[in-house]
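Quick one - first record:
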Amino acid sequence: MATAGDFHVIVGDFNDAFVEIVAESVADALDPCQRLRVHGMPEADRILAMADERPADLFVLFLNNVSFGQWGRDLEADSFIKALMLVRHLKIVHQRPIIATAAFPAEFLYEDIAIRVGADFFFRMPFDMKAFTETIRALFPERARQASDLRTTPLSAFRAGTHSFKA
């Protein structure tokens, strides 16, 4: 069984419902002794500041829902290319797993690029929640739920102690 500890997830998206979906999947994947902390924010500047302040265990980035302020200002590219550059930056600087997702007609092209720049996994929207949960379990086997304890943990159990959870 995993030892107790905080598990920090930074979700790059402006949609609170997506942040909650990610939180539920991570909660289902992790051993119940892990204290889940989910921080949802769409701004690249805030994502980077949060990652510098409190190291993240996992980044989940909805690539076409990330906005750019100071970081990326000097990059002459559209916001999706900037999002891919953010993936690369996070991977190089923080060296933590990154799950990317996007909702574009040609997302199969973006999947290949996202993986090449540093995303560990890419999920096309809408994606299968069970596959997403299994991916998280595979990324963190030492902190994952045991096969004998795969019952769902109610998300309300995490909300009470998680002041940064936005839902």
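second record:
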Amino acid sequence: MRRFLGIFLIVSIFLAGPLLAQNLKTPVSVSDMVDIESDRLDVNTKNGTAVFKGRVKATKADIVVKGNVITLSYDAVTRKVTQMTAEKDAYILWKDREATCNKVMYNLTTDVMVLTGDVVMTRGQERISGQKVTLDMKNDSQVVEGGGGRVKVRVDAGKGTGIMQWGK
């Protein structure tokens, strides 16, 4: 009995340090979390991709992205997600703005979102449409391209905020 008590004491001393150190680690920021729902998930560790298929919904902080296929690309070493791509009937909801397009690529590292193919963005009664929209949310800049067609914008000139302001 004394022998087991001695072993237990020694093991407790060695385990106490790592367990306490684990509690001191910085908690994961809520804004870094991505929650995803889908009908299917295919992970390719070698390529560093996770492909979600079937009524996919991904949420990161206050941005919701939906599509029939969403692909996450991640760094093979750090396992940190670097890019999210939604294809086939992509839909984005961000605060009071909505957008639909054929494809959206969201670089989580640079906080740049590129929407392509029949892009329509709305905010209340305001609206922007084009073939390619690039949103740089860190630098609060947007580029809308017609891609052979025309860029169309409906803006409420009486308001101080509008659809063109996508910054954080």
